[in-house]
Write a structure and sequence with these properties.
By secondary structure, the protein is an alpha+beta fold. The protein has 2 helices and 2 strands.
């Protein structure tokens, strides 16, 4: 991610009306700026599940998110 991206992500989440909207904004932002990241949010009455998956084809492991 480019410099300043994380700050922008935080501002988007802080401006949310509740935690569910904040998580969805974070997931959408990460999908937008990180091409090889799949982020899904599942919310039900008893839990919240955040799924992150690296869909890139590079063999290097683990890959840095912030460079």
């Amino acid at each position: 991610m480019r410099r300043g991206s994380f700050a922008l992500l935080c501002h988007a989440a802080l401006g949310s009306r509740d935690g569910a909207q904040a998580l969805n904004r974070i997931a959408g932002f990460l999908r937008l700026v990180l091409d090889d990241l799949q982020c899904k949010i599942d919310i039900d009455p008893t839990r919240i599940r955040i799924r992150l998956a690296d869909t890139g084809t590079e063999t290097r492991s683990p890959r840095p998110m912030f460079v």
